[in-house]
Amino acid sequence: MNKKRLAPTAAAVLCSGMALAWIALTGLLLEGPARADTAGIFDSEPFSITDGRQIYEHICRGCHMENAGGAVGAGRFPALTKNPALGSRQYMALTILMGRRNMPAFGTKYAVGFGGPPVILNEAQIAAVINYVRTNFGNRYTDPITAAEVGTLDRSTH
Amino acid sequence: MTEESGTALSRRRLLTMIGVSAGATAMYQAMHSLGFAAESKFQGPIRLSSAPKGASVLVLGAGIAGLVAAYELRNAGYKVQVLEYNARAGGRNWTLRGGDRYTELGGETQECRFDPDLYINPGPWRLPYHHRGMLSYCKRLGVALEPFVQINHNAYLHSRKAFGGKPQRLRAVQADYDGHVAELLAKATRNHALDADVTAEDQAILLSSLRSSGALDSNYRFVKGPDSSERRGFERDPGGGLSARPVFSEPIALSDLLRSGLWAALSVGELYDMQTTMFQPVGGMGQVGQAFARELAPLIRYNAKVVDIRQDQRGVSATFEDLRAGSSRQTVSADWCVCTIPLSILGQIPMNVGAPMARAIAAVPYCTGLKVGLQFKRRFWEEDEQIYGGITYTDLPIGQISYPSSRFFSDGKGVLLGAYIWDMRNSMDFTSMTPAERVSKAVEYGSQIHPQYSKEFDNGIAVAWHRVPSAMGCFGLWSDAARAEHYDNLCGFDGRIVLAGEHASFMPAWQEGAVTSALDAIDRLHQRAHAAGAAA
After folding, report:
1. Which pLDDT score, from 0 to 100, does residue B40 have?
2. Does the distance separating the beta carbons of B367 and A114 come in below 8 Å?
3. Which homologous superfamily does the CATH classification assign to the domain defined by A3-156?
4. Smallest Cα–Cα separation from B493: which of B344, B353, B312?
5. Which domains does chain B have, with CATH numbers?
6. Number of other CB atoms surrounding residue B117 within 10 Å
7. Subunit contact A73:B425, Cβ cutoff 8 A
8. Phi-psi category of B173—alpha, beta or left, where left has phi over 0 and alpha has psi -120 to 50?
9. 3 state SS for B426-441
10. pLDDT tens digits for range B143-170
């Protein structure tokens, strides 16, 4: 785990009440030089799944729901079906990279962790889940995004 | 104007002035230098002078921040109306008990099937002794408190990767870590490795202190024997009569201990927020919200979903859908508005505030925390393992298991907090499951620590905060960068609207953040109301 990525994690924890403990501790573990040998008890695994459907099912489904229909409560989680925003694969990529309101960011530059490292999706993972969503749930887009394009978009943000 | 008396209030006034003139960050720095910052800035009950005649306030949200604001403003003579989305007060201050039904986003309804008097707190569950605001309101509202056991030396630390997955008693890990480190330091001292740093006279004292702190023997060794067993526990406890003789226990070898990673959990209970004494309301954290609700009953409009917030020169109006009346729309108005709606939701509600506040509202993602409550047929953790309250920490996705801090030794069923997950990887994964799957996974993982699970499990309930319709997230996840850029803009007045809640505090997720942000907001509101009254 590189230190650059950890910085916001530690920062977020610095003043976080619920889990202050955790973070202080995990910080030590994650930044320790002998991490491979001493992998500590609060260290969650990096997110390594590469299949678009599985990424959706482990991360996105929590809010956007099984059928991608979103949900309405005091506010709403947008549906990822019949949603004109999906027309722009770049918009989707930037939303995933940078987050949006209560949706966390998943790009290395923006993700904030809590109680451990943030969930980071690499360019290929982001492309995979975008292409999955845009070709399922009744979506029929024919212009897939590539990992390289996600990378270009990522570098355009600051 | 606020009445001032005594040093504490004067200091608070001074800090407030710094906050008004130079922003919250400057105020926080000032608090730091005055020794306030690390603890709640609560300085005793707020004392607002009388409200300007006829002045009114609209409070949006009946969570802790909204309830505190409504309670104090009403007491000062303001005409107060509260709009609340849920059918109950408290917001994330919430207790689930037998007979409760809870429908999460996506439509799944769970019925809590716990026995009478058993419960879980899906949200906040413990009160540090220095969260004086929360403790003060509990006392004023008649909410009985009892100890919350945070540190239990007989609970476990567990890693799948260490000791063959066998959980270790915190007591032993603590004693062995302290003992080995003390022995190493004593060795270094006696080998003159510290001569450059510690005088000869102090070295003698240091050695004595290491013997004391690390339970070393007379040769400064941490070894199996009476000294170490008095800390880590015995292989066989001393007793009386012919079977009286104790059998000492064998400490864990230093290398095994270091490689286990279990030491990482030792300092949790040392943190300021987790130190003894902690408290919990008798009967569940939700007692606090309920007590406020009794006080404010006629003022709170439940089942009211706010869909639009407008302000102009004269006042603020909020339009809401009455969820019990076919979502018919109504609008209410007041001179001022204290808005405590979580940013996860507020960011989606049209509201005519300036760009700085609007950008701040949009800048804070929410933690994906989640809890699972599990009822078992008997309190096996007490009966079989002598664990009375406290927390077992594990590297399993469930994160921790917490044992109830009340009703010790009672017969019948018991409820554990079977998962409290806030690392993002696992909490997102669990949020993506159905409630039944979350419960099932919590049982599956927990049985690796307590094999009794499979035989004794009765039923469970799972609350994933991103799926809670009234919150849509656990708490504001501020990054340092976002806080530097947006925090002051979030907390400052925009026209006649001021925000409050844990998201408008330096104590994320803690109810004390909601209390202190509400008091800070209404203090400033009160000043403005009087200034406006004087100008009119």
Report:
1. 73
2. yes
3. Cytochrome c-like domain (1.10.760.10)
4. B353
5. 6-90+286-364+477-535 (3.50.50.60), 96-154+275-284+367-467 (3.90.660.10), 167-260 (1.20.1440.240)
6. 15
7. no
8. alpha
9. HHHHHHCCCHHHHHHH
10. 999 999 999 999 999 999 999 999 999 9
Q: What is the pTM of this model?
A: 0.88
Summarize the confidence of residues B223-232 as an average pLDDT.
98
Cα distance between residue B175 and residue B222, in whole Å: 10
Question: Over the stretch B75-85, which tens digit does the pLDDT of each residue have?
Answer: 999 999 999 99
Q: What is the DSSP letter of B342?
A: -
pLDDT at A20 over 80: no
The dihedrals phi and psi of A22, each to the nearest 5 degrees, come to: -50, -50
Q: A44–B397: do the CB atoms touch at under 8 Å?
A: yes
Is A143 an interface residue toward B (CB < 8 Å)? no
pLDDT band at B30 (very low <50, low <70, confident <90, very high): very low
Name the minimum distance, in Å, from the CA of A144 to any CA of chain B: 25
Residues 1-60, chain A, touching B (beta carbon < 8 A): 8, 11-12, 14-22, 24-26, 28-29, 37-47, 57-60
What is the mean pLDDT of the segment spanning B170-177?
98
Under 8 Å CB pairs connecting chains A and B tally to: 194
Give CA–CA dist B101/B112, Å, rounded.
6
Nearest-CB residue to B472 (from A25, A28, A73): A73
Beta strand B109-111 pairing with B79-83: unpaired
CB contact under 8 A, A112 and B513: no
- At A43 the pLDDT is 57
pLDDT tens for each residue of B6-24? 333 344 444 444 444 444 4
Output the average pLDDT for chain A.
Answer: 78
Q: Do A59 and B469 touch (CB under 8 A)?
A: no
Every domain of chain A and the residues it spans: 3-156
**What b-and-e string marks burial along B242-269, b requiring 16 or more CB atoms within 10 Å of the CB?**
eeeeeebbebbebeebbbbbbbbbbebb
pLDDT, residue B2, reads 34
Q: What is the ipTM of this complex?
A: 0.86
